[in-house]
Design goal:
Layout lengths: L1 H23 L19 E13 L11 E14 L7 E4 L3 E6 L5 E6 L1 E5 L4 E11 L5 E10 L4 E12 L4 E11 L5 E9 L9
Antiparallel strand pairs: 1-2, 2-3, 2-4, 3-6, 4-5, 5-7, 6-7, 7-8, 8-9, 9-10, 10-11
Length: 202
């Protein structure tokens, strides 16, 4: 009987010791910086994503059914939807392409390795090997730029290379904003060769 009681006491002592060890091993480490960020998971993931942006040809009444015009098409192999967050957005981790059309339906293209579309501001953040090719052959290359879809305006603070085969312009610089088809440019810092056409005298 004494033996049995001793074993029982030993078992209880071992259980208490294990419980103490378990509670003393709790993670009380205070995380800061990147570690403190909460993991975000997309509400949905779309493959072979395609988004068409249109505008009405004229102002519509409540019962009007006038046709609309395609002004931009965004395509990507993968689109991740984070519209459930306080700052809703979509990401395109495998790159994207935006085809946009002017009033004469001429197409220009933007390509990038990564993109984020912010739903509230309607701005696209394009990152990594960003290339814009206009319908008339102009080309801009940079590492990051922003496309404001509502105002059809594009801007970057990064280094860029701009070429225009029509007039032989080759320009490097840092920081630029411009209309979506590269028809109106405002460069901040530039160097390179720019050709300026002279008007013929009458």
């Amino acid at each position: 009987m004494t033996l049995f009681s001793g074993n029982k006491l030993n078992c209880i002592a071992v259980l208490i010791l294990m419980a103490m060890l378990f509670f003393s091993c709790q993670d009380n480490y205070k995380r800061v910086g990147d570690e403190a960020q909460k993991q975000m998971y997309p509400r949905g993931v779309a493959h072979n994503f395609r988004l068409v942006r249109t505008k009405a040809q004229k102002d519509l009444d409540s019962e009007d059914s006038a046709s609309s015009k395609v002004i931009a098409i965004l395509t990507s192999s993968v689109g991740e939807n984070y519209e459930n967050l306080s700052f809703p957005h979509m990401t395109f981790p495998e790159g994207l392409q935006v085809d946009f059309f002017d009033d004469e339906n001429r197409k220009s293209i933007i390509r990038a390795d990564y993109g984020i579309v912010y739903s509230i501001s309607n701005v696209i953040d394009l990152q990594g090997n960003v290339i814009i090719e206009s319908h008339d052959g102009k080309k801009l290359e940079t590492s990051q730029l922003y496309y404001d879809q509502d105002n059809e305006w594009i801007f970057t603070q990064e280094k860029f290379k701009y070429t225009n085969p029509e007039d032989g312009t080759v320009m490097d610089g840092e920081g630029m904003d411009f209309y979506k088809d590269l028809s109106l440019l405002k460069a901040h810092k530039t160097n390179g060769l720019m050709m300026i056409k002279e008007e013929a005298d009458d």
